[in-house]
DNA sequence: GTGCCTCGAGTTCC
DNA sequence: CTCGAGGCAC
């Protein structure tokens, strides 16, 4: 439990410590009634506004001091439990007096709890994933998109690098003053695990660099060679240990050892291929930067090649594919990157992938096996999903026994628009089917062999009744999925909704995962059938004769921990709460939009209660939110008007204190919050690029001039828009003035 | 109306 | 990770 006992782990942020990992003995006092820590402190409920304001100021100061001591001085001044109590008290007061929430509120930095084992590391620059190309057409598309975005002349050369995509796990290494100070896994891209001790045991990773930038984050792939993998497995099986399915699993398993001595004994290797934050650029090109990393002492892949055309990219792909079997390590494709870092910067990023790179994947490994059965699963929204049960078969180093069959049409041999797939061949129980792993992860069925179809195999009949509750399962016209209409009556939907409620982006209750939800849902003594039941669990347990701590899999300690974890989530952020409700079409980002717009639960709840689908001011206000359309809006409003759903929400709310969301941070740029329009020919950048830049600076980019327009950027050839802007008195500037305004950096 | 782009939902194995 | 579909710009 890194850092949990207050040990000095310079990386674990105390703000991110998991309360459930703290010593329960300390917690009882600290958590259940923070005010008792100091009798002079009033319960948050008894504070008046002035008292609350002063108290928030004091807490902000104390928490900041504790953070400083922990981080900078490496000498904690208070126990983790006491620290936690301070934060808890701060949250409670903020929840009661949202208007008093300070700009420097310690809660602005609260994040997710870390998994047990390694400390968490927030990547200074996120570790992104790559878009995939599966054939030459995708590669040509990619190159064309890049050229279009940059506005390159047809005859202009676009240089790109091509390098093998190593099949291992990515790692980010941070060097300060030339010394390796931290190694972190990718994690979800935002937050990874601190594996510094283990990374130090890898020979390919230098501990010291000479002539490196002051701050340098090197990114690359940890992998294991085929020879080392075979030897390791031989050693493991000789010692009676378990063997690994493939080199990637072996590399991942070895790097994530809690005991660095074990990692040291594992023959891991490392190729550097990218970088994160750095204090000085390594070069002005991708290829130059890689060469520089090589000079600094990193292994870089020798097959990395600089190309000047799509044809050259494909040629390199073909050459690397031909060498694949003799490389001595696993690769799963070839990565192409725009060579000029200036162009990379101009291209920028979409939400999770850079626009300047793509991974050209090798064809997926395939395997034939027998389809034993088709089961139907019922999801949170009632969707009936067919799952193939397969005779276990090895595909790409992993044994697969289940695969998704998508939907009714997919089994029947049609796509969503009714056109035939697999030449119209349907899939039947007993068939031989071809399995692959999409993106090397998700098992799917690609084809079926009609020649091996057993006599008497009958077409699969997709159920029209829910297999879990017997309700009608209907399919809307134009919809690909069939849905159970049972709603809250359907046990499968109820369980899935509960799993969603406790999931990571929702209430994120430690110790109450999918498995525990299944168990509690079926529990005769202490059932959890709806979200409100979670918050009455401890009280019901106290009153019960058959107590939780006497069950299999639960002890006194784990029960206490669980109740503690539930207790802390009685205070919940508005966006998490909205997401947790599990309203169809309302996911993480929609919830954030709604929370930011309505700011408080009472405001949101009142608006949804008042609103009528398709009419009225409340409905119009909902639709006016950027990103909320009629389908999403109708889904929310309908949910709030269903008596059963509504009652369940009200029962839940009786147990919660909702933290209002802070008003959206307005970026500190000259164009933040402004609506701008581009017109005419832009000479220094393309339209798409200008738009992305403006949006990154907090501006809204519109297509046409109206009274709401704040600024028109007019290039040569501007016509009607410039005229209209003049009539409306909208400020109009040229491209150079615009670049000057935004500081072109 | 069409064509991006992004989000939501469902899914597997370790 | 991928597909389908919603939202929105053109």
Short description:
Helix content is 35%, strand content 18%. With 745 residues, the chain is of the alpha+beta class.
Number of strands: 24
Kindly, what is the distance between the CA atoms of the first and last residues, rounded to a whole number of angstroms? 43 Å
Q: What is the SS-derived class?
A: alpha+beta
Top CATH class of the largest domain: Alpha Beta
**Number of helices, where a helix is a run of at least 4 consecutive DSSP H or I residues:** 25
| C-alpha Rg (nearest Å) | 29 Å
Which sequence of strands runs across the widest sheet? 2-11-10-3-9
Query: Mind telling me the CATH superfamily name of the largest domain?
Result: DNA ligase/mRNA capping enzyme
Low-confidence stretches: 1-42, 66-76, 79-84, 107-116
Helix content: 25-40%
> Would you give the CATH topology of the largest domain?
D-amino Acid Aminotransferase, Chain A, domain 1
CATH architecture of the largest domain: 2-Layer Sandwich
Report on the biggest sheet: 5 strands, mixed
